[in-house]
Amino acid sequence: MTEQVFRLIPATQNYPWGKKGSSSLVAQLADGSGIPDFKVDESNYYAEMWMGTHPNAPTRVHGTKQLLSEHLAAHPELIGESVIKRFGLENGQIPFLFKVLSFDKALPVQIHPDKHTAEHVHSENSRACVDSNHKKEMTLALSNFSALCGFLPTSRVSEFLAFVPEFASLFPADIIAHFTSVACSPDESGRKAALKDLLSCYAQIDKAEAAAQLKRLVERYQADKESDEEKDIKPLVLQLHDMYPDGSDVFCAFILNHFNLKPGHAFSVTTGEPHAYITGDIIECMATSDNTITLASSPPSHLDFLSNVAYNPTPGKTLIQPTMFTRGSTSTAGSLLYNPPINELAVMQVIVAKGGVESHRELRGPSIAVVVEGEGTVVWAEGAKRLGLGKGQVVFIATGTEVKYSAFETAFKLYRAFVEVA
């Protein structure tokens, strides 16, 4: 009989927006994870650590080095029949992909396609859509975290068109006139149509002209010549310009909502919702997919940003409110549950005080946990089996397995992603 709890070897992804060397939380965790021959390269960028069965960066079983998907295909009882049937899983796949991200440079503005689109495009062009799944996701801040997500209300975009001449210069006069005329209208469909027209123009702007206008804008801001309507947005524009001096995406600051989140804050991103993470360390969990459409690459032939984006302006983002998974849990002790409106996943923050114990009931689905601070043990099989864990180490926990976490000399902190089927 195979073990119900066992260590995993995650995979890392190196992108230029990741944090450099040992300043990256991803590098710190990877250094303790057991990745063969891993050594932090202080000149390299460590952006993401993946834990799951997606083939683009698959997890392996520690010890045997076998792909996790192969191991689970041979032992489907670890996933559970109800989960396999509910999500139509095959070949040892699990329905969620768990990540840690660490970045100090903005990611590209992007969206993720819905399942119908992903299935259709993947069947025709597997390069345009690397898999056939949607990619709804949740993000949980581990540090101070900054992001763009979702369209600003059209009334606010209209104000920027009026008070930011460098931004307005990117659009034809008739597009601005129409947008301004409907920006405050009660006609929701009219506002969305105007936003679509504006974004269509934005996606096709001349990059050299955008760079020139950005230079003028930054020079004006650096000279403190902004209007009152621009004072709140000025720091973000200058920050994005420092990251991308010639980047036309900087002007997205005048189109998308900006959020500054604290550790423990979380939100979900649905399909078609534009977003760009700017700085911070986060937990990210999503339906198992790597389908991403960036605004910068629009419009390619098979899968373009403009036809898949959801034109839904909102005044802000609703945060996921954590609930107690175990009685008496708080943001500094116990187990808090972050349960987004995504069927494939949920995430728990687990903090065990020095010398303490935290017990988790059986879950009706598989889970993966990663240790981000401290050392401790996970115990299962009614105390008959245990596994020591430290920072960066990752474990798989089979469906229907009751576990207990114990801390050693310091607090023991981990995050556990899971799926549960009633």
Automatic annotation (TrEMBL):
<feature type="domain" description="Phosphomannose isomerase type I catalytic">
    <location>
        <begin position="5"/>
        <end position="152"/>
    </location>
</feature>
<dbReference type="Pfam" id="PF20511">
    <property type="entry name" value="PMI_typeI_cat"/>
</dbReference>
<feature type="domain" description="Phosphomannose isomerase type I C-terminal">
    <location>
        <begin position="335"/>
        <end position="378"/>
    </location>
</feature>
<dbReference type="GO" id="GO:0009298">
    <property type="term" value="P:GDP-mannose biosynthetic process"/>
</dbReference>
<comment type="pathway">
    <text>Nucleotide-sugar biosynthesis; GDP-alpha-D-mannose biosynthesis; alpha-D-mannose 1-phosphate from D-fructose 6-phosphate: step 1/2.</text>
</comment>
<feature type="binding site">
    <location>
        <position position="275"/>
    </location>
    <ligand>
        <name>Zn(2+)</name>
    </ligand>
</feature>
<keyword id="KW-0413">Isomerase</keyword>
<dbReference type="Pfam" id="PF01238">
    <property type="entry name" value="PMI_typeI_C"/>
</dbReference>
<comment type="similarity">
    <text>Belongs to the mannose-6-phosphate isomerase type 1 family.</text>
</comment>
<dbReference type="Pfam" id="PF20512">
    <property type="entry name" value="PMI_typeI_hel"/>
</dbReference>
<dbReference type="InterPro" id="IPR046456">
    <property type="entry name" value="PMI_typeI_C"/>
</dbReference>
<protein>
    <recommendedName>
        <fullName>Mannose-6-phosphate isomerase</fullName>
        <ecNumber>5.3.1.8</ecNumber>
    </recommendedName>
</protein>
<dbReference type="InterPro" id="IPR011051">
    <property type="entry name" value="RmlC_Cupin_sf"/>
</dbReference>
<keyword id="KW-0862">Zinc</keyword>
<feature type="domain" description="Phosphomannose isomerase type I helical insertion">
    <location>
        <begin position="179"/>
        <end position="256"/>
    </location>
</feature>
<feature type="binding site">
    <location>
        <position position="110"/>
    </location>
    <ligand>
        <name>Zn(2+)</name>
    </ligand>
</feature>
<dbReference type="InterPro" id="IPR001250">
    <property type="entry name" value="Man6P_Isoase-1"/>
</dbReference>
<feature type="binding site">
    <location>
        <position position="137"/>
    </location>
    <ligand>
        <name>Zn(2+)</name>
    </ligand>
</feature>
<comment type="function">
    <text>Involved in the synthesis of the GDP-mannose and dolichol-phosphate-mannose required for a number of critical mannosyl transfer reactions.</text>
</comment>
<dbReference type="InterPro" id="IPR046457">
    <property type="entry name" value="PMI_typeI_cat"/>
</dbReference>
<dbReference type="InterPro" id="IPR014710">
    <property type="entry name" value="RmlC-like_jellyroll"/>
</dbReference>
<feature type="binding site">
    <location>
        <position position="112"/>
    </location>
    <ligand>
        <name>Zn(2+)</name>
    </ligand>
</feature>
<dbReference type="GO" id="GO:0008270">
    <property type="term" value="F:zinc ion binding"/>
</dbReference>
<keyword id="KW-0479">Metal-binding</keyword>
<dbReference type="GO" id="GO:0005829">
    <property type="term" value="C:cytosol"/>
</dbReference>
<dbReference type="GO" id="GO:0005975">
    <property type="term" value="P:carbohydrate metabolic process"/>
</dbReference>
<dbReference type="InterPro" id="IPR016305">
    <property type="entry name" value="Mannose-6-P_Isomerase"/>
</dbReference>
<dbReference type="GO" id="GO:0004476">
    <property type="term" value="F:mannose-6-phosphate isomerase activity"/>
</dbReference>
<dbReference type="InterPro" id="IPR046458">
    <property type="entry name" value="PMI_typeI_hel"/>
</dbReference>
